Amino acid sequence: MGITWSPDGSRCPICAGPGRQSTRHPAALCESCQESVVDQNGNSVQLFNESFSGGLEISISGKKVSRSTDDAENFPLYAKRIECRAREYRFGGVVVQPLEAWNVLDKAERSTGFGD
To answer: Which residue of 21, 48, 81, 104 has the smallest Cβ count within 10 Å?
Structure first.
């Protein structure tokens, strides 16, 4: 299933509603879609920064499921059956984008030599 997003982040790739307006993460899920993400079994997922100094934590039913930020960033999440991944946002917070978008955007970032 193909997803679409706009370069200025004005469109949520899941519900097609208003996006987060982020050019850094143009395929970021809107707040409503991000709050609705589930794991592969349909369990509600909570996403947090690990501490003030960073890191990403994923919990299911109050139980921490990721042991490291790398584990968390590779943890399959789903929004309306579209596979997504979460990452730590640049200055705190969490950003969720469809896996397809991360792959496309990461590839473009590597080819231009730009990164966080």
So the answer is: 81
- In angstroms, the CA 49 to CA 61 distance is 17
Fill in the amino acid letter for 110. Answer: R
Size (the chain), residues: 116
The full set of domain ranges for the chain reads 31-110
Predicted local confidence at residue 1, as pLDDT: 55
Q: Tokens 């909570």 correspond to what residue?
A: 46
| DSSP-derived 3-state class of residue 78 | strand
Q: What are 7's two structure tokens?
A: 């370069």
pTM of the model: 0.84
CB within 8 Å of 114: residues ≥ 6 apart:
none
